[in-house]
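for the recovery benchmark. tokens below, seq after
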């Protein structure tokens, strides 16, 4: 058989008996020193299995996942907002320890972003912040429809990210949740929000 070097195209005559039953042998070109493999022509090539015409059916006990549609700004768009809110984020009904502190008022002040200067009172132990259909609606195009939630358990306040597209940041780091002290800040999209705690007269 005649073999060719893949690098310099030099041709050699190779005795097929030197395969000694092996499927391949390694040769080194005497002209350019390139090592390369050659295949035994006597070795049958196994046929590749044909690809199935249709995907296999889903068996019992298996589930399939479909990607939820996204809006133009990249945030996830839910078909049923109420059902999505109940499925992905804890509600007050499932968090019996949530309650507003006695003798104090809590507010969320927007200190940077499109809604800078606005202040929102925290009237319930859990408030959802987002663009539309949330407890606190902001006009920042970089935040998701339901972006983050602030939960209050007496004097403990925590912000939770609700699987938002662009994330929630505290202390310069992306977080799933973060504790907030008085005058503590967190960022969602291009908006910075500060927690303000005052005495309730």
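predicted aa per position
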């Amino acid at each position: 058989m005649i073999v060719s070097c893949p690098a310099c195209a030099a041709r050699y005559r190779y005795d097929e008996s030197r395969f000694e039953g092996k499927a391949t042998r390694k040769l080194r070109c005497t002209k350019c020193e390139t090592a390369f493999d050659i295949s035994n022509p006597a070795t049958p090539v196994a046929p590749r299995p044909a690809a199935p015409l249709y995907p296999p059916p889903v068996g019992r006990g298996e589930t399939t996942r479909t990607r939820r549609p996204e809006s133009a700004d990249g945030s996830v768009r839910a078909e049923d907002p109420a059902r999505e809110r109940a499925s992905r984020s804890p509600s007050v009904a499932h968090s019996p320890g949530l309650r507003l502190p006695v003798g104090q008022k809590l507010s969320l002040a927007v200190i940077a972003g499109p809604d800078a200067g606005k202040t929102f009172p925290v009237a319930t132990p859990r408030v959802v912040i987002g663009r539309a259909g949330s407890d606190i609606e902001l006009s920042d195009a970089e935040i998701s429809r339901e972006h983050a939630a602030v939960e209050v358990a007496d004097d403990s306040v925590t912000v939770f990210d609700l699987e938002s597209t662009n994330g929630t940041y505290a202390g310069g780091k992306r977080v799933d949740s973060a504790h907030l002290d008085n005058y503590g800040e967190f960022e969602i999209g291009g908006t910075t929000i500060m927690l303000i705690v005052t005495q309730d007269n």
